[in-house]
Amino acid sequence: MSQNNQVNLINSVKENRPRLALTLGDPAGIGPEVILKALADKEISQKYDVTVVGNGDLLAQTYRKLNLTENFAPLANPDDLLVSDVQLDGKIQGKIISGIGNAASGAASFAYMENAIAQTLAGKFDGIVTGPIAKSAWKAAGYNYPGQTELLAEKSGVERFGMLFVARSPHTGWTLRALLATTHIPLRQVADTLTPQLLTQKLDLLLECLEKDFGIENGRIAIAGLNPHSGEQGQLGHEEQDWLIPWLQQERQNRPQLQLDGPIPPDTMWVKPGQAWYGNSLVQQNPADGYLALYHDQGLIPVKLMAFDRAVNTSIGLPFVRTSPDHGTAFDIAGKGIADATSMKAAIDLAAELVSQRLAKKN
Q1: What pLDDT score was predicted for residue 17?
Q2: H/E element holding 323?
Q3: Residue 249 to residue 254: CA distance in whole angstroms
Q4: Do 220 and 294 reside in the same domain of the chain?
Q5: pTM
């Protein structure tokens, strides 16, 4: 670490700036590129105390390679960054190839995550922004986790957690918040996994997050149905009639201060959010504060359609803030200098915003 970086770190502590760990993600993907592009933005590098957790040599290699491309996007020089260097076994590092996810790149990204989590739990960082990883590479390396969220929860010792996707519209400034009731499971398992108990847990998490991280009390929540047309009164599926509608009626009685809308047919639930996102003045807009989708694609297809380059994956229920860009490793474009860093910037901005909100409440 240079003398200037040491001074910056001391100043950040004095100024109570958010201290963020930024993991490199899969080093064979676009994670290192979008990190270098994001940290080249002075709006980020000067406002926040960001430490890259990864392998310094691999980050430097990415920097040199990108400087040889025809893309002229500004890049942060790794020599000017705070880097928590995670040393890799020489055999692993030698097998990491840009654009090819494999056991070596999976082992590396897993090591970065473990290191960042340990340092955050030890109090060095207030939150973690994670670069994209490939679940297949983790599995090839022998780590059988559905994703980073589950690893974060396990290492943090929490059983109540969720994946919340947050995006702020560049057109209207409206903020979309969509929570998934189930995440990385096969579609055929969704109906059996969903239960009244699970939905109550997810609703609790969403309401706690809205209050703690966004300052929204007694919000309005929209809850999706499971089947087409929310079951069409049992003609297109029985889950709504059997338990989803009774559960929702009970929750309304238990939480009279809230407005709980649903179960809303999945094909129409996203109309108002779309209007709020794009600013359709022809329709009366009345979007909810949070949206509860029942399975992965039911929530993420509309979120990515509206906000692919701006959506941020936020893990809720953890003892610290965690955000991640809502895109994958994009091995097919790794090293070409054309990756878009907008979502990574949004992930860093949101992590800092949430950390500041929590720090303000403590003070």
Answers
A1: 86
A2: strand 321-325
A3: 9
A4: yes
A5: 0.89
